[in-house]
């Protein structure tokens, strides 16, 4: 009875995710990443599970397509829309892997591993230094950063997996090498695919505040924050869970970095926390009017309960339920 190899199962899952992304109007680069992961998993299944040896030389080139697509998808989702022309230089990565596989086959594994480490490190370094992710939504806390950190570390771990496979071959344990290839490749491709389809990874997170000491705010910084507060008071944009730094900056006719820096220096917090302060105050009003904690959360622009409770506690020092109980006791008339 024919059995479905593990890479074929991974290919089916990733292909379904790619089709769902395309049919639901998902980001084109995300769809391309999922499709590339599905194609690579299928190639692994055909070459390793069903003995289609002609595909083995293609595997390193197919693998080399994935790291630049991870970076491009991350860049497009969290930092700024990327046109095909702007992304074109990254085609050099699989082109170089193809060149190595044809003219220097002994180096192709090293080249591929270097691409994985390089692009994985680029994602992690961008997250580490990102005081400003303009396309990130402001309602999900650290989740988007965590998801893309997972993707960056998965790229680096895949390179380490390749090193363990090479060690198994050098030690004469080809049986180990087969299992290591299957497990490492499928695990990596599934992690990348599942990270990519998370809403938070497609622009649903918070900008990250710098841990470095902030310079003193200028008069212009204070004026910018006052304009931001006036805008939120006049137009409750903070109630939209899809609000982004880029959208706020456009409304204020400012560069994203200028707005982010002004808020950081003036308030000591990032734009996400400043906006969440407005959301918490709105949630308090809703709780005071009898709304449940869940209704208050949804009506105030928060996407997740974890972020709502964390930000509510940061602003008020208590939980929504306890805050409402305290308000009820305060509002009760004193006994005669």
Key terms:
2 domains; 15 helices; 336 residues; Arc Repressor Mutant, subunit A; elongated; mainly alpha
What does this molecule look like?
With 336 residues, the protein is mostly helical. The protein folds into 2 domains: 6-202; 219-331, Arc Repressor Mutant, subunit A, CATH 1.10.10.60. The chain contains 15 helices and no strands. The protein has helices at 6-23, 28-49, 59-78, 84-87, 92-103, 108-128, 143-170, 174-196, 219-234, 245-252, 256-267, 271-288, 293-299, 305-316, 320-331. The chain is elongated, with a radius of gyration of 24 Å. The model is unreliable at 204-212 (pLDDT under 50).
Q: Helix content range of the residues, please?
A: 55-70%
Tally of contiguous helical segments: 15
Class by alpha and beta content: mainly alpha
End-to-end separation: 84 Å
Order of helices and strands: HHHHHHHHHHHHHHH
**Rg computed from alpha carbons, rounded to a whole number of angstroms:** 24 Å
* Average pLDDT rating: 78
Give the number of domains. Answer: 2
**In what range is the share of β-strand residues?**
under 5%
Main β-sheet, in a few words?
A: none
Categorize the overall geometry: elongated
**Strands, total number:** 0
Unreliable residue runs: 204-212
List the helices and strands and how they pair.
Blueprint (H helix, E strand, L loop, with lengths): L5 H18 L4 H22 L9 H20 L5 H4 L4 H12 L4 H21 L14 H28 L3 H23 L22 H16 L10 H8 L3 H12 L3 H18 L4 H7 L5 H12 L3 H12 L5
Helix pairs in contact: 1-2, 1-8, 2-3, 2-8, 3-5, 3-6, 5-6, 6-7, 7-8, 9-11, 10-11, 12-13, 12-14
């Amino acid at each position: 009875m024919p059995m479905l190899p593990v890479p074929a199962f991974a290919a089916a899952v990733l292909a379904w995710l790619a089709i769902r992304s395309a049919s639901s109007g998902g980001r084109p680069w995300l769809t391309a990443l999922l499709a590339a992961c599905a194609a690579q998993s299928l190639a692994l299944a055909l070459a390793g599970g069903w003995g289609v040896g002609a595909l083995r030389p293609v595997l390193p080139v197919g693998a080399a397509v994935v790291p630049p697509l991870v970076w491009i998808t991350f860049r497009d989702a969290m930092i700024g829309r990327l046109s095909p022309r702007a992304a074109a230089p990254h085609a050099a990565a699989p082109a170089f892997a193809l060149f190595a596989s044809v003219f220097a086959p002994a180096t192709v594994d090293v080249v591929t591993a270097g691409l994985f480490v390089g692009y994985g490190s680029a994602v992690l370094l961008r997250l580490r230094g990102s005081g400003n992710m303009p396309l990130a939504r402001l309602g999900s806390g650290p989740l988007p950063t965590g998801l893309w950190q997972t993707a960056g570390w998965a790229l680096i771990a895949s390179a380490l997996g390749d090193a363990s496979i090479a060690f198994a071959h050098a030690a004469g344990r080809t049986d180990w090498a087969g299992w290591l290839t299957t497990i490492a490749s499928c695990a990596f491709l599934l992690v990348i695919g599942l990270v990519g389809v998370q809403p938070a990874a497609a622009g649903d997170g918070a900008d990250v505040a710098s841990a470095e000491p902030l310079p003193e705010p200028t008069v212009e910084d204070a004026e910018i924050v006052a304009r931001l507060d006036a805008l939120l008071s006049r137009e409750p944009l903070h109630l939209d869970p899809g609000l982004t730094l880029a959208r706020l900056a456009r409304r204020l006719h400012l560069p994203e970095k200028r707005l982010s820096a002004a808020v950081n220096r003036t308030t000591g917090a990032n734009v996400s926390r400043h906006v969440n302060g407005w959301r918490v105050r709105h949630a308090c009003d809703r709780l005071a009017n009898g709304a449940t904690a869940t209704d208050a959360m949804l009506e105030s622009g928060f996407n997740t309960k974890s972020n709502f409770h964390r930000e509510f506690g940061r602003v008020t020092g208590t939980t929504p339920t306890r805050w409402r109980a305290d308000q009820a006791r305060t509002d009760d008339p004193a006994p005669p």
